[in-house]
Known about the structure:
Layout: E1 2-8, E2 16-23, E3 29-37, H1 42-56, E4 63-66, H2 70-79, E5 84-85, H3 89-100, H4 105-114, H5 118-129, H6 135-143, H7 145-148, H8 164-172, H9 181-204, H10 212-225, E6 229-232, E7 237-241, E8 247-250, E9 255-256, H11 260-264, H12 269-277, H13 292-298, H14 326-335
Parallel strand pairs: 1-4, 4-5
Antiparallel strand pairs: 1-2, 2-3, 6-7, 7-8, 8-9
Helix pairs in contact: 1-2, 3-4, 4-5, 9-13, 10-12
Amino acid sequence: MVIVDNIHLKSKYKGTMIVGVVMDGYNQQYPLAYAIVDSENDQALKWFMTNLKTAIEECPNLVFVPYRGQSIANVVDIVFLNSYHGLCTFHLKRNMEKYFKDEAIRKLFHDACRVYRKLEFKHHWVQIVNYKNGSLARYLEDAGIQQWARCYQSENRYDNMTSNSVECFNAFTKEPRVLPITLLLEYTRGLLQGWFHDRQIVWSNSTSPHPISAEEIMGLECEKSRQCRVNPIDCYRFHVKDGRLDGIISLNTRECSCKQFQCLEISCSHAIVAARERNINPFTLCSKFYSVDSLVIAYAESINPLGHVSEWKKPPGYTEVKIFHRKEWYMLVDKG
Length: 336
């Protein structure tokens, strides 16, 4: 899932930084691309997205979550024809609170947007419909239920329901944004150089096949599975009773009626019980995304320094242009 945001620069040169961030298997920020443009407009966004597509191509199950504004979503639909874009549930919730001036709707929305089953969603939706004669329900329908309700999303967001990752990246670059653009770009490049180096060392020396974050999720699901009972249906399918809505699990297709298994691509409690019944390691049913090997590959390439400007390779026909500071430009104008 790619989070895209526009960051307004604070230097006297103005401009906007466009950033695309994803999350790795350890739930760490993995910046895909960043660029400085003159202003926040459709032309600049389309240029950024077109170059991003050249770099990552049209990946399957590609999800974009724009931080704010419809303009990014519109450009995504034009450039990435087969992708899906959702809404940041945090900002949608905050907008609702401002519009309705009532913090009570926070829990109503949170409970509805994060459930995996449509049956559970409908239970919460009834409460939303009953709020102020259906005004909240109409507001959320206009926003597009598929864009924020997990059980109705057509592609996986891997539990990333908000744009927190790009906000964290914004925080890292908050102070350097007052610098001239070239220094800001060099600072950002140096920041990523450090991140990639440190993570290369960590994951290449890891003795565990999975990061701690994945093991913690599996640990919670294992604890839940202790209360479950399993009834085999055939060689691959099982009926797992959990005391609630139960689950029908298929090990060969890696799907469960609870929807959590295929949504997160990590074994749910029903899958763990079924795997034990067949003496299968539940971790082997999880996506490779949650493996240390995938993290090693993700950080295999290094972020290199640019070197001194005098040593940069210049294309044929290159002409050096003097860029004046605003103060210098005014001095030249005064001299006539």
